[in-house]
């Protein structure tokens, strides 16, 4: 094909423009894609503080790009994940999004929605930066698909120190039986003994109870299909959950985790089971009078989850996303993010002394305790499995039917456990 000179100049110009756009180098002409839309559910409090820290590092490390906040509020991504799913279906992905390491990430990989980042790991020197176990949770068929930002611990119990002291609770309970005794003391004081929120927060509480009753190894087996859900130890766990529910706020099904946390801050509740983003959130909100301990009966077990970021297929600004991902994996980025987020760095070279007191204990615990995955936060189970359990929890919260819940759990595992 012969092109006229004018047409060929135009084509060259367009090619140059597309190349500049693809590599994100605007060459001073202002034509490149600058915006990097980062999709998370970190919209407020300690979560936003963590994100802001990362954005600060990104601004320094990636001056050619502009962070665009695509956050959709709602704990554990309860709203964000629906918005994301519909955008992915419509081939309108954000430039990067937050995904949990483990089975949740595998869903995006098997749907062909995210890119292989193996070559970037080599280029950015990340291959040995993270623990081998975590890397295997980000890898499918030898390819690695995301960059982890942190490690969170799920099975933590937060308390209002003044409220606990006024109820005569001097030491943290280490068994479920002792915990029920303490909850009775709080009840007698006229406060809500255990603040609770909706479905996914109830699933977290239930997972902690399961760890107490089954122990770490059998708990892990619930997610890979080797532990049956119809056993007597699961029945006991449901009965324990039912009893725990009697100590919680009645409006739990309308509460996000931050609403339950507010009861702790206002001195209206004694305890709340929640992941350690609560440490950062309480700090961000200026509430200092809090205690923390592992959930009773979970001693020696670190229930983990990890946030990671991906490069979606069809992202408008792949070069900008790569700069974001490189920042997420860097020592500076991990420090700026995790010191404010309540989590610990995924990188193994972090300096514990740089972190607040709570995270210093978590850094030590992560190395020494038995690790089990969280289902409510995607490490242990797929999004389908998680969704089935969340709706079973919501149903149980209103009908309290032990055998109906166990039947629903068995059915969910039959469909999703692997
Ligand atoms: C988790 C997420 C945490 C925290 C939490 C509460 O799923 O991994 O980083 O944001 O939800 O929203």
- What's the CATH topology name of the largest domain? D-Maltodextrin-Binding Protein, domain 2
In terms of DSSP E residues, the strand content is: 5-15%
Chemical compounds bound to the protein: beta-D-galactopyranose
Helix count?
17
Please identify the structural class as seen in this structure.
Answer: alpha/beta
What are the segments in which pLDDT stays under 50 over at least 5 consecutive residues? 1-29
- Percent helix, as a range, is 40-55%
Indicate the CATH class of the largest domain: Alpha Beta
**What radius of gyration results from the CA coordinates?**
23 Å
Distance between the termini: 56 Å
Name the CATH superfamily assignment of the largest domain.
Periplasmic binding protein-like II
CATH architecture grouping of the largest domain? 3-Layer(aba) Sandwich
Q: Provide the spatial order of strands within the biggest beta sheet.
A: 2-1-3-13-6
Describe this structure in words.
By secondary structure, this protein is α/β, with parallel strands linked by helices. It folds into 2 domains: 35-151 and 306-363, D-Maltodextrin-Binding Protein, domain 2; 153-304 and 371-416, Periplasmic binding protein-like II (D-Maltodextrin-Binding Protein, domain 2), CATH 3.40.190.10. Helix content is 50%, strand content 13%. It has helices at 5-23, 45-61, 80-89, 103-110, 118-123, 132-136, 161-166, 176-188, 199-224, 232-245, 257-265, 277-284, 318-329, 331-341, 357-368, 383-399, 402-416; strands spanning 35-39, 66-69, 96-100, 139-140, 143-144, 147-148, 152-153, 156-160, 192-195, 269-274, 290-294, 301-305, 307-309, 370-373. A 5-stranded mixed β-sheet has the order 2-1-3-13-6, sandwiched between helices. The protein is globular, with a radius of gyration of 23 Å. It binds beta-D-galactopyranose. The site of beta-D-galactopyranose has 13 residues, from loops.
């Amino acid at each position: 094909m012969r092109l006229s000179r004018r047409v060929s100049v135009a084509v060259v110009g367009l090619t140059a423009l597309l190349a500049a756009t693809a590599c994100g180098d605007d060459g001073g002409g202002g034509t490149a894609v600058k915006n990097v839309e980062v999709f998370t559910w970190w919209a407020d409090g300690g979560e936003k503080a963590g994100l802001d820290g990362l954005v600060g590092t990104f601004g320094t490390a990636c001056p050619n790009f502009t962070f665009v906040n695509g956050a959709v509020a709602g704990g554990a991504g309860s709203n964000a994940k629906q918005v994301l799913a519909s955008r992915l279906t419509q081939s309108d992905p954000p430039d990067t999004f937050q995904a949990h390491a483990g089975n949740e990430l595998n869903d995006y990989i098997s749907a062909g929605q995210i890119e292989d980042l193996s070559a970037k790991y080599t280029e950015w020197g990340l291959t040995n930066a993270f623990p081998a176990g975590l890397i295997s949770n980000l890898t499918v068929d030898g390819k690695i698909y995301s960059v982890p930002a942190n490690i969170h611990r799920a099975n933590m119990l937060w308390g209002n120190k003044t409220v606990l002291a006024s109820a005569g609770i001097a030491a943290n309970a280490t068994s479920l039986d002792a915990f029920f005794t303490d909850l009775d003391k709080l009840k007698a004081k006229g406060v809500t003994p255990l603040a609770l929120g909706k479905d996914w927060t109830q699933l977290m509480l239930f997972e902690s109870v399961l760890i107490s009753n089954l122990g770490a190894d059998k708990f892990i087996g619930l997610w890979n299909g080797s532990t049956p859900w119809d056993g007597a130890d699961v029945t006991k766990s449901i009965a324990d959950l039912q009893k725990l529910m009697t100590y919680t706020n009645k409006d739990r099904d309308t509460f996000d985790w931050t609403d339950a946390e507010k009861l702790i801050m206002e001195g209206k509740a004694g305890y709340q089971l929640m992941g350690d983003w609560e440490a950062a959130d309480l700090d961000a909100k200026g509430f200092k009078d809090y205690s923390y301990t592992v959930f009773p009966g979970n001693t020696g077990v670190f229930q983990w989850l990890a946030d990671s970021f991906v490069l979606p297929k069809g992202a408008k600004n792949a070069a900008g996303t790569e700069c974001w991902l490189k920042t997420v994996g860097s020592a500076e980025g991990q420090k700026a993010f995790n010191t404010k987020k309540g989590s610990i760095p995924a990188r193994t070279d972090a300096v514990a002394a740089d972190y607040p007191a709570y995270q210093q204990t978590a850094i030590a615990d992560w190395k020494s305790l038995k690790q089990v995955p969280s289902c409510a936060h995607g490490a242990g189970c797929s999004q389908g499995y998680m969704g089935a359990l969340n709706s079973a929890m919501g149903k149980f919260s209103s009908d309290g039917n032990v055998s109906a819940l166990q039947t629903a759990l068995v059915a969910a595992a039959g469909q999703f456990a692997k």
